Automatic annotation (TrEMBL):
Its EC number is 2.7.7.39. InterPro entries: Archaeal_FAD_synthase (IPR050385), Cyt_trans-like (IPR004821), G3P_cytidylTrfase (IPR006409), Rossmann-like_a/b/a_fold (IPR014729). Keywords: Nucleotidyltransferase, Transferase. SUPFAM superfamilies: Nucleotidylyl transferase. Residues 8-127 form the Cytidyltransferase-like domain. This is Glycerol-3-phosphate cytidylyltransferase. Transmembrane segments: none annotated. PANTHER family: FAD SYNTHASE. One of its GO terms (molecular function) is glycerol-3-phosphate cytidylyltransferase activity. It comes from Jeotgalibacillus marinus.
Length: 132
């Protein structure tokens, strides 16, 4: 029985935009199942990020996306090895703004950094809306 290929990625996914969707689509295209570890509101504080939408609402939005099969909470930096093992992950994916940061996972699974989508970001959206 062929094992399904499980892909795992992490992020805040606030004010969802086409750059996020572009990442999720390419991540899902690498396998059969895509798990997103979504930064909790508390973890965002550790990342010095403040999401506009709550964790529950960001989770609801992600779960509505055709490419996403499962959403789990990201509570701390140190949970990735455990997440990879517990979820039998084959491929870990992040945008290449994180290139190299998670190479320690190569001991447990394939690590893929996908090109970040230029021209859009949550920060940019917030700034543009401020200017009005
Ligand atoms: N991304 C992208 N293109 C953009 C914006 C984001 O490809 N224009 C990707 C990022 O590289 C990341 C994912 O979308 O892989 C989610 O981005 P963020 O929500 O900003 O995630 P981040 O705050 O980088 O959290 O433990 C890892 C962290 O939780 C990553």
């Amino acid at each position: 029985m062929k094992k399904t290929t499980t892909v795992l990625t992490y992020g805040t996914y606030d004010l969802l935009h086409w750059g996020h969707i572009n990442l999720l689509k390419r991540a899902k295209d690498l396998g059969d199942e895509l798990i997103v570890a979504l930064s909790t509101d508390e973890f965002n504080q550790l990342k010095h990020k403040e999401a506009y939408h709550s964790y529950e609402n960001r989770k609801f939005i992600l779960e509505s996306i055709q490419y996403v099969d499962k959403v789990i909470p990201e509570n701390k930096w140190e949970q990735k090895v455990e997440d990879v093992i517990k979820n039998d992950v084959d491929i870990f994916v992040m945008g290449d703004d994180w290139k190299g940061e998670f190479d320690f996972l190569k001991e447990y699974c394939e690590v893929v950094y996908l090109d970040r989508t230029n021209g859009v970001s949550t920060t940019m959206i917030k700034k543009d809306l401020l200017i009005g």
